[in-house]
Write a structure and sequence with these properties.
The structure is a homodimer. Chain A has 13 helices and 14 strands. Chain A is of the alpha/beta class and about 325 residues long.
Amino acid sequence: MTPRITLLAGGVGGAKLAEGLAAIYPPERLSIIGNVADDQEFHGLWVSPDIDTLTYSLANLIDRKQGWGLTGESHRVLAGLERLGCETWMSLGDQDMATHIFRTQLRHQGIRPSAIAQKIAESLGVTINLLLPTDDPLQTRVRTEQGWLAFQEYFVRERCLPEVQEVRFEGATEARATPEALAAIKTADIVLIAPSNPVVSIAPILAVPGIRRALETTRAVRVAVSPLIGGRTVKGPADRMLSAMGYPCSNLGVAASYTGLLDGLVIDQDDGADRAELEAKDLRVMTMATLMTRAEEKARVAEETIAFADTFRREREEVEA
Amino acid sequence: MTPRITLLAGGVGGAKLAEGLAAIYPPERLSIIGNVADDQEFHGLWVSPDIDTLTYSLANLIDRKQGWGLTGESHRVLAGLERLGCETWMSLGDQDMATHIFRTQLRHQGIRPSAIAQKIAESLGVTINLLLPTDDPLQTRVRTEQGWLAFQEYFVRERCLPEVQEVRFEGATEARATPEALAAIKTADIVLIAPSNPVVSIAPILAVPGIRRALETTRAVRVAVSPLIGGRTVKGPADRMLSAMGYPCSNLGVAASYTGLLDGLVIDQDDGADRAELEAKDLRVMTMATLMTRAEEKARVAEETIAFADTFRREREEVEA
């Protein structure tokens, strides 16, 4: 039977592997758990950037050039809000605004955030199970020399320029995992971690105690795809953030941030030098070209990653049999 | 000293006289009390059609062709909401959406609706005092053969087609007048009622008990401009509604709907035949060309109406002196 796959993914980087999987894999065997700790209210509307990036990518509505937002966007609402004296550093397009208005309305009606995310994804034609790690409040906060910032303040308003001194996930200890996310990890044959920022995209998902526990105890083979290529990130501040968190800025740092949660790690062919040290830490390692720009690259990385994970899933089954 | 003028006005028709007054009169001597009973929530956003029409008209941002909404509008957000499965019969433009988002955010923060209306008007460059009759919930409901409808359902969705059997203003008896609206009526030298729909634009303002009492007891001269031209309305269902409410569909019906609240009535030159009967009811009557399409017509109607009201205001002062 086709193995059940569950992917943990952040925004832009995570969406690439998600798209690759969606292109080659039966949707009913695929679940994606996204990151909600980047969510923030703007103009009284609930914006969920990572979930929207996943949704818009999988719906093939994403602005391919910038990697987020909808294609062919205009910004008339934002101009109107600016005229009314509002701060408009968070770029929110007009079609995108419909998503935020809709999400906010449903939240005010008391509908679970994960049910809303699913409804939006379905309305836009996404057939994969898109799950939230929690329906409870969970907020990434970043301490810089300017003090504590909400994630979008750091990421968008300050353009990741201030040095990060500390990261915390407000609400994490109280946050209950959604039953759907727990089930998706527990019943999966393979759990993949996307090449997203380990510190601010994947860590907040893992900060939900139930999610971490499920990942520690699942019988699934657990494989991460490293976001580093030649020791650096393609985009975003993950490399600098790893250093700031006291991890080595290399695949050893990526692996260290997932300690106890991984069976295997996919690293880029340019980082082959890390292999021996990773294997010494009891990790199975595969090197491949991990840069995903074109659709074929996304599909290939997905395919090779599944094949890698599936190899030692079968080995394990044989040992157990 | 320049008389203080307070105008009671609905949406499209009311905005025309409001614009005429704004064009010829010092803004600090002018207050406008608008209608909030047409307000309705759409997509979780608070929409206030009559207040927005007044604001956009006075800010010279109105779509002159349709008489409401902002000029040069697009409807990207609405298209997005439609894609998400929402009902989109209420046409809300993208720039207009900014107003509704802003208003809703401030309402959720607990700011008084009238303070919000003033803030929006100021942000768009309106210098006239724009007031709300009440900050409390007040909702026009229209009974038709389809049952009770919210006003916008009747007006926009059903295009005023169902016959109106009854109109009620939910919340009216409990609604407290805003101190600003009360003061504007009490301290005015002239109170004008715009050529708006008496049944669903002006009546809900007067349905707030404090407003009606203030208008009954003010020392101001009170003059209405009839919305009828040749016994019919220029636009909208006011004529049919007068009949449905049991009033004659003529200026006698308009006058009857304002019984006890008027000293004078401006009627169109085409309706001169009504004059004798109106005067027999102790009303001073002036006939003029009341059609207001171009800016000059709006200013002229405003000017002649003020002159008419001011004549018998002065007469009254002389009698009292």
